[in-house]
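ARCHIVE CARD
Drawer: 12
Card no.: 0347
Subject: one protein chain, sequence and derived structure
Cross-reference: see card 0346
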Amino acid sequence: MRIYVTTQGARIVREGAHLLVKKGDDIYHTLFVSKLSQVCIFGRVELTAPALQLLLREGVDTVFLRKDGRYLGRLASPEPKNVFLRKQQFDRLDDEKFTLDVVRRILYGKMTSQAMLLMRIHRTRQVKEAKIKAREIRSLIKRLPETDEVDGLRGLEGRASAIYFQGLRRGLLRDFGFHRRVRRPPTDPVNAVLSLLYTFLFNRVYSAIRQANLDPYPGFLHAPDYGRFALVMDLMEEFRTIVVDTLTLSLFNLKILRQDDFVTERPEPASCLPEPPPAEGPDVVRDRYGVMSESGDGRAFDLPPQRMEDAILDEDEEDNRGRLPVKLTSEAMKRVIDNFERKMTTEIHHPVEDRSMTYGEAVLAQARLFRQVIEGQRAVYEPLILK
């Protein structure tokens, strides 16, 4: 079970073997720690020392975010004890053939899902532009096997993502000012939702990697760097389109989110600023795009600047200085959270495991499959693809 605590001014306190979410004398929720896998704390929420100790002792992934959803950090859980597995991870970084194969497969999965979603938009809305963009991405996919440098593969991914977002906007039934991916800051409602949901996805993938006893730092598509969770970014890629982008279209097209659910954050007027000191002083499951397959019954804000933030980037950097950020209202954010959790509990068929599982379980399954590839138990990594 994953819990999101968004009530500002709330306190999380320990009572015996469980936690209480309180505000004043009122008890909002009772949390049974044995059932918790993750707690996400937004903004001004106090976590008492006894509660913190209980979460650490039980190994509950505890994530801290700003009120607007921007990632701040998390409680550090004990490091995995399998030093030999971690050594294998770092050894693989020096294996050029292994790296090229993993990067090609990650990008094949991501780019194929992008093309599939654009074709779904074309079939659903009869939008010719979406079909053209899908064909352009497929032409780039054909170049993956013949590209023998990781930097070249990254270049193909960047071009595909720019094309993809040009076509993705045609999946929206109304104009929300979304023309391309803008993230720092998000300057329209669609980009604001994408950034928030990519943050949630990042947390899920990070948690799955730790459960698989993998080190989150050594990645292949995303170059290892100081403080960069490169492996988290790598394994996020195949889930961006499948989970976040499809859900974002549904949130807007099904009118779960409307224009008045967003606010533009404006700087305070100069007259409201304090005088300078003197110089001498010191939330969908049944959506048209969100299922893994079109057959069956249909059930189916940015992180801090990279080091962490590249985890939610698909596109080229844009200088947005001077543009005002757009953010969700508190009530709208709760709806987004609710629908993200519903999406993650939607059942799909996992082709490698050959069984039904939820999206949330699929994230963990992919982390475990990647571990098998690292250890040599599986020859190739098979990404999840939108069908």
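Annotation on reverse: Residues 279-286, 291-319 have pLDDT under 50 and may be disordered. The two ends are 28 Å apart (CA to CA).
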